[in-house]
Specification:
single chain, mainly alpha
């Protein structure tokens, strides 16, 4: 039954192009800004910054899944269909997992694809350890942001409120990347710890969210 709900949610996502637009914006903006900087100041301006750009690109994908997460539960409430879903023969836990699993893969998938493409284009300056650290960092960001988005979507009354609340993550996320990327990319310890912490928070938020959804 979870698989049935998951397929239904994925069909809805693929029918709505507006959900895909946020995932296109970050790579286009970063590619444009990098191209302008290189053309104006020369390639030396990006020297030593490729690992940072790869980490930033992946982390920027994390909040881009906010519209999907917001629509999963707050959208049902706004359309007055949440009560109907709860009255359906499908168990609330199956509904919750089907919706959650339909949202989580998108930011993770787009983040990974963009980072792999960037790494392929800059493999001569980004070594394997830095690339893996950047990928783990973006995965951590995606898990944290989506866990927070899930809880917001369950509490918010409208999609707009849930989306705007999640987008507040962008500023502290950018600050963390800007101020701590050198320490983060220095070795694998920080990325592994961050991923473990993010997984724990995501699991905890998922359990809390499922209990809240069942009790609605």
């Amino acid at each position: 039954m979870i698989l049935h709900v998951l397929k239904h949610e994925l069909r809805l996502v693929f029918r709505e192009p507006r959900f895909w637009i946020p995932f296109v914006i970050p790579p286009v903006l970063l590619a444009a800004s990098q191209g302008i900087a290189v053309s104006r100041y020369g390639g030396q301006i990006m020297q030593g910054m490729d690992g940072y750009m790869m980490l930033l690109l992946g982390c920027l994908m994390a909040p881009m899944g906010a519209p999907l997460a917001a629509d999963s539960f707050a959208g049902e409430r706004e359309r007055n269909s949440l009560e109907l879903l709860q009255l359906s023969p499908v168990k609330p836990a199956h509904l919750f997992w089907g919706k959650f699993l339909a949202v989580l893969p998108f930011p993770l998938m787009f983040s990974l694809i963009c980072q792999l493409v960037y790494w392929g284009a800059h493999s001569d300056v980004v070594n394997g350890e830095v690339a893996v650290a950047a990928i783990l960092g973006s995965m951590s960001a995606c898990l944290l942001v989506n866990a927070f988005s899930l809880l917001l979507s369950l509490k918010a009354k409208t999609v707009r409120a849930a989306t705007q609340g999640t987008l507040f993550f962008i500023i502290p996320l950018l600050l963390l990347v800007q101020l701590g990327y050198q320490t983060f990319l220095r070795d694998m310890m920080m990325p592994v710890v961050a991923l473990g912490f993010s997984l724990a928070v995501c699991v905890a938020a998922t359990v809390v969210g499922m209990r809240k959804f069942i009790s609605l």
